[in-house]
Amino acid sequence: MQQYEYTNKIYYDHFVLPFTIGLVVLLGYLCVKYYKWIKSFPKEERKKIRKGLFSFKTIRSGWEIFRESLLHHNIFKTNPMLGYMHMTFAFGWFLLIVVGKIESMVYHTSAFNPPYFAIFFRYFHPAKETFPHSEFFAFLMDLILTFLLIGILLAVTKRFCSRIFGMKKTTKQRAYDLLILTVLWLIFPVRFLAESFTSGLNGGGSFLTHNAGNFFSGFLPLESLSYPAWWLYSSLLGLFFLLLPFSRYMHIPTEMVYIFLKNWGVKQGKEYNGFSEIQVNSCSRCGICINTCQLNTSCNINDTQPVYFFRRLRNHEEYAQQAEDCLMCGRCENSCPVGINLNAIRQSKRPDILRVTKDTYAYVPQPEVKPAKVAYFAGCMSHLTPGIIKSMLQIFEKTKADYTFIDEKAGVCCGRPLALSGNWKAAQVVMDKNLQMIDASQADILVTSCPICYKTFKEDYLLNIKVMHHTEYIDMLIREGKLKVNALDLKTVFHNPCELGRGCGVVEAPESVLKQVSQKIPTVYDGKKSLCCGGSLANTVIDATQKTKISSDTVKAYAAYQPDIIVTACPLCKKTLGKTSLEIPVKDIAELVAEA
Amino acid sequence: MINFWGYSISETRSINYDTNDKSMTEYIARVVPSSKLCIGCGGCTAGCTAGNLTNFNIRKIQMLMKRGENKEAKEQLQKCMLCGKCMLVCPRGVETRKMILEMLNYIKTKLKS
Ligand code: SF4
Ligand code: SF4
Ligand code: SF4
Ligand code: SF4
Ligand code: SF4
């Protein structure tokens, strides 16, 4: 009864319509959306696109898309099980499309057959008519389909018992997401059924669909099932395409766009713009950020991690509290497989409330600064930890440095705390005050003891002199032989401050210094994996008790290595950890060096 | 204060609790409950970055606000640099930085003149 139009070479049947319409609408929607977003970029950023388009960077992006969007290399690194699941889906589907396309082209030898032809090839292709390597193709297609079905099995398992994946909580879903998830999960099983039914009727297929077809033909009325199955398959695809832009799966096309833009050098600025939208839409909701966030692990706060914050942004829900409820520790950003600028985006959503005028900070006196080669800016927090300042001054004296202590008496804040609360305008006024001071010092090197200051000096001040955190400066002194140190007989662990390690990428210098002045115990929290001390100024939602909880959990984690001292490199971390670490002393690396 | 050939009349120092606008302190007590723990020790002011350079006094502003005298807060509060040192020294765990942010917010959006 099944009447295929074997003789008629126009491959068409009404059932391809849902798929085709879905695809066309989706592509149209995406083009308009991306065009709008890119148009909202600042001018300089758009220029970068024009420059990057025909450069090597584009090829590199292609490779990165292959590695990340298809193979999910980064998720693999964090969590192999999860990576495998994402990979079977993405790479499997990709192969199914590509190999299917090649197969259909080999059969039909025209590159211009309609897009649906390859997708519904088994329906249009008369099974008895063989073509070069048709058996091999059938085998390959079945293999890929098997691969995909296993992926779905894993995904279903993950949803119902996520512990196998080493994830505590699976990301919460709303009804719409559940709908599209169901559609996605059904697509491949239905394809499998449609192909099997057709194979059961007409032959064709390979180890999977052929055998399944034979099996089904034993007890199912395939004649009346096969055609509706193709309709269902096409409708599911079409529905998936139509639902996609408003669901998490928007990340599939958007992540690719993001990878291109990123490689062309587009940067997330202080403003929330189209580039931020693209990033927010690139989040695959993999949930990795939930498990790295200490607000989750220590305080059980589960509505503020990027995955949730972004979902609020996308669904236009209230997000004011979530924008503020974040330590900006960067642990999530460091582990996000898509590499989204999570902190910068959150910061751009913090409202500017200070009423700054040009007189707001007029009370700050004109600085009197003695010129010297090295300008030392302790940072206002360091004035609460005199031990750090004393040690640094000792080191300067010992190495006979030509230095000047620029914020000894009348220092002002570096401005980053203002910026962290969204008040960029006010921050700019404070920054100008410091700039005058730095200029007046005529120094070649600016050394600071505070990683928070360090980050903003490096990124926002646009200084044309060298900016160093004291750990880098000490490391340089030791390397140049200007500072001799002896190893103390102390076992230490290193807590790399968020703003220093993850924030500014300073990892080697402090480690190398610490190894020379003590017996450093390696920990799993070394380098960019360090834990947040909890004292961050960035979070104004959690209270003192919750901060203490984070801090004491962090101390516990480091204390498990049984060090004599917990070493850090930030006055704020030292203060915060010092309050909760009652048994093991907490010291700044500079203090250790001064003793050594 | 009017200067009258070398003489001046001091501003009245009477505080009328009934007519003062307590809305801000009520709001702050609600959103920053830890502000109720303040014992007025002045530690915050002693370490204050802004207070080091001018007579900005965060303890005093806080105290006045609690009485419903919001004038000083309105005039002075933007001098704060939000550096957070006050919070770090406070022996009572008052989240001063958050309190300041909330006060600024309130002054800007809700406080009647
Ligand atoms: S923000 Fe990154 S880590 Fe978090 S869910 Fe999205 S993609 Fe995953
Ligand atoms: S920056 Fe830190 S506190 Fe904020 S969401 Fe990420 S991991 Fe959590
Ligand atoms: S970053 Fe912190 S310690 Fe450094 S100057 Fe600013 S407020 Fe002070
Ligand atoms: S340091 Fe704390 S307790 Fe003392 S006056 Fe300031 S806010 Fe109040
Ligand atoms: S946050 Fe404001 S009030 Fe507190 S110490 Fe810094 S400048 Fe002073």
How would you portray this structure in words?
Chain A is mostly helical. Chain A has 4 domains: 52-252, no CATH class; 267-348, no CATH class; 374-477, Rossmann fold; 486-595, Rossmann fold, CATH 3.40.50. In chain A, 57% of the residues lie in helices and 5% in strands. Chain A is built from 29 helices and 8 strands. Chain A has a 4-stranded parallel sheet. Chain A has a 4-stranded parallel sheet with strand order 6-5-7-8, with helices on both faces. In chain A, α3 (56-70) packs antiparallel against α12 and α9 (175-202) packs across α10 (209-217). Chain A starts with 15 loop residues before the first helix and ends with a helix. With 113 residues, chain B is mainly α. Chain B has one domain. Chain B is 42% helix and 4% strand. Chain B has a two-stranded antiparallel sheet. In chain B, α1 (23-31) crosses α6. Chain B starts with a strand and ends with a helix. The relative contact order of chain B is 0.20. At the A-B interface, α28 of A face α5 and α6 of B.
- Order of strands, widest sheet of chain A: 2-1-3-4
Count of the separate structural domains of chain B: 1
**Overall mean confidence score, pLDDT of chain B:** 88
Roughly what fraction of the amino acids of chain A lie in strands?
A: under 5%
Terminal Cα span of chain A: 91 Å
Query: Which structural class fits the helix and strand makeup of chain B?
Result: mainly alpha
Instruction: Outline the biggest β-sheet of chain A.
Output: 4 strands, parallel
Helix segment count of chain A?
29
Radius of gyration of chain B: 15 Å
- Structural class, from helix and strand content of chain A? mainly alpha
Q: Give the overall silhouette of chain A.
A: elongated
Number of self-contained structural domains of chain A: 4
Rg for CA atoms of chain A = 30 Å
N-to-C span of chain B? 20 Å
Which chain pair has the greatest contact?
A: A-B, 33 and 26 residues
Averaging pLDDT over every residue of chain A, what do you get?
Answer: 89
Portion of residues within helices of chain A: 55-70%
